[in-house]
Design a protein that fits this description.
It is found in: Cytoplasm. The chain is 12% helix and 30% strand. The protein is mostly beta strands and 206 residues long. It has two domains: 94 residues, 3-Layer(aba) Sandwich (Rossmann fold); 82 residues, Translation factors (Elongation Factor Tu (Ef-tu), domain 3, Beta Barrel). The mean pLDDT is 94.
């Protein structure tokens, strides 16, 4: 499911190591590691790029610092085209995850999740920036109704933003547009840079 959804990086935390027989068993960890490696390889992941970390969430073993209960564990190491990484704990494996690139260079696409009327401010569409950048002063076009207006301000978590980038959930105030003119599902784009248009057909992954 993760692979199909586009999740390309994986960490395998082998939990409850304190409950193995005997506790903190190296052979049980290696057995699980082998089985899971074979499974994720069939799905499409490269096991060499996946950190396997034996942990006990209950006792905190190998979560934030190396555990003295598993002296046999010399640490995890991964190889990927972006470079190698290694460590002993789960938090180090999390820190080794490569941040996704934000598609700021593509035309703006912001599907609306909701539209609010806020007293003293006006009409505020809300949604997540998928591609491109949204800035105050920008002239946006909403598809499919082809409605064009100026963005007065952009906010995230009640703080004004000078620009919103992909991944940001924002509310933005628009000029001279009634709340009845916009609906959930409409898509905002930059009127000057390839605004969203209707398509006769499209290809999608289900």
């Amino acid at each position: 499911l993760a692979f199909t959804s586009g999740v390309k990086q994986l960490i395998v935390g082998v939990n409850k190591m304190d409950s193995t027989e005997p506790p903190y068993s190296e052979s049980r960890f290696e057995e699980i590691k082998k089985e899971v490696s074979n499974y994720i390889k069939k799905i499409g992941y490269n096991p060499a790029a996946v950190a396997f970390v034996p942990i006990s969430g209950w006792n905190g073993d190998n979560m934030l610092e190396p555990s003295d209960k598993m002296p046999w564990f010399k640490g995890w190491n991964i190889e990927r085209k972006e470079g190698k990484a290694d460590g002993k704990c789960l938090i180090e494996a999390l820190d080794a995850i490569l941040p996704p690139s934000r598609p700021t260079d593509k035309p703006l696409r912001l599907p609306l999740q909701d539209v609010y009327k806020i007293g003293g401010i006006g009409t505020v569409p809300v949604g997540r920036v998928e591609t491109g950048v949204l800035k105050p002063g920008m002239v946006v076009t909403f598809a499919p109704v082809n409605l064009t207006t100026e963005v007065k301000s952009v906010e995230m978590h009640h703080e004004a933003l000078q620009e919103a980038v992909p991944g940001d959930n924002v509310g933005f105030n628009v000029k001279n547009v009634s709340v009845k003119e916009l609906r959930r599902g409409y898509v905002a784009g930059d009127s000057k840079n390839n605004p969203p248009k209707a398509a006769a057909d499209f290809t999608a992954q289900v």
